[in-house]
Amino acid sequence: MKTKRIIAFALASIMALGMTACGNTKSDGGDKSEAKSDELTIWAWDEAFNIKAANIAKEMYQKENPDVEIDVVTMAQDDIVAKLNTSLSSSSYDGLPDIVLIEDYKAQGYLTSYPDEFADLSDVAKKDDFAGYKTAVNEVDGVTYGVPFDSGVAAVFYRTDLIEQAGHTKEEMNDLTWEKYIEIGKDVKEKCGVSMLTLDPNDIGQIRMMMQSAGTWYTDEDGKVDIADNQGLKDAIAVYKELVDSGISKQVSDWDQFVGAFNSGEVATVPTGCWIAPSIQKAEDQSGKWAVAPFPRMEDNADSVNASSIGGGGWYVLKNVGHEELAKDFLKDTFASNVDLMNTLASEITLVSTLNAASEAENYSKPNEYFGGQEIFGDFAEWTAKVPSVNYGLNTYAIEDLMTEAVQAIMNGADVDDTLKDYQSQIEAAVAQ
């Protein structure tokens, strides 16, 4: 059965990367000759967040460059992945954008698979201007290919009323270990009758965040699969198992159940990326009852810190589409440097920028009444600067598909070392295809 799964996995990967284009395609030379020098196309997903950000950036840029036409196109992330793989694998650029948003976990895969397709942005996005963990994602051999965008800095969003009812304080929440978190969770469950958090058996993002807090990933610093002897991974699985075994978690199976649990008061905390803030604020009747604390560290891992990340992306320029210099100029004047833009996006889409200078923007020091008057943007910016850098490698999601099986086996009693050794071999075989 394992052999069949690996073969299926490999075939799926080949199909995703090598699918034949449907419809019209042209070679690079044809596209460039027909391209207008004063037009840009931008691809991204999520109307309420990424697309809105791109449109606000467009408006700011066009104030100084009124002759430039900019078309911001909404496209599902899976469709972006499919179209880029299809076109770039055949050097066909007709219909491709000049600028595209790429998720951090996928960036290295693109830059490695298509090394001649992305523009060098080293003179646009200065490395020291951004959070260190974000610039590492966008680099290959010291060259910067992407402009970091949103922070996925992790935090613990928590109900202050429930934590206090359980006999604990804000001070305790601000220096959490996972062991202390579980202790508080047991009191919350006993005294308040609600769970501490949600867990989805098919989504091991919690383990991913714990790993990064210790500076480790599914791959090592060279991008090679690192499962069997990965102490950070082992420690994260141990904490995850304790979260399950302690009885303080509520099981969910999809996004709607996840959001519904905290909006309806069924859980006391939400440990995840800062991007969850708008979803929490949808429960208007809970205004003033929430606060935000740093992400917990793993007590038994000396490298683990109270900072991690989940999600996030960056803006990339496709240099062979025909508008490389204009696209670079757009990014230079907007996402790569514009504090006014970041200040606006903080209020418009609750953006936590990874541009270091954004921490000085006016909206970053404003108290948020929903979160009890806490200056959440300033805290997010501070924690973002502490997130450990890791090499996400080329196959985060492919690896995680198999790692989810491994974790479920361990939850059901399988030996940790034997299971991780087994899956090390399976994953190496799968991603080598």
Q: Could you walk me through the main structural features you see in this protein, from its secondary elements to its overall organization?
A:
The protein is of the alpha/beta class. It has two domains: 2-151 and 311-360, 3-Layer(aba) Sandwich (D-Maltodextrin-Binding Protein, domain 2); 154-308 and 400-431, D-Maltodextrin-Binding Protein, domain 2. Helix content is 45%, strand content 12%. The protein contains 18 helices and twelve strands. The strands form four sheets. The chain has a five-stranded mixed β-sheet with strand order 2-1-3-12-6. It has a three-stranded antiparallel β-sheet with strand order 10-7-11, with helices on both faces. Strand 4 (139-140) and strand 5 form a beta hairpin. The two termini are 18 Å apart. The relative contact order is 0.17. The model is unreliable at 1-35 (pLDDT under 50).
Structural features:
single chain; alpha/beta; 3-stranded antiparallel sheet; 12 strands
Brief sketch in words of this structure:
This protein is α/β, with parallel strands linked by helices and 433 residues long. The protein is built from 18 helices and twelve strands. Helix 1 packs parallel to helix 18.
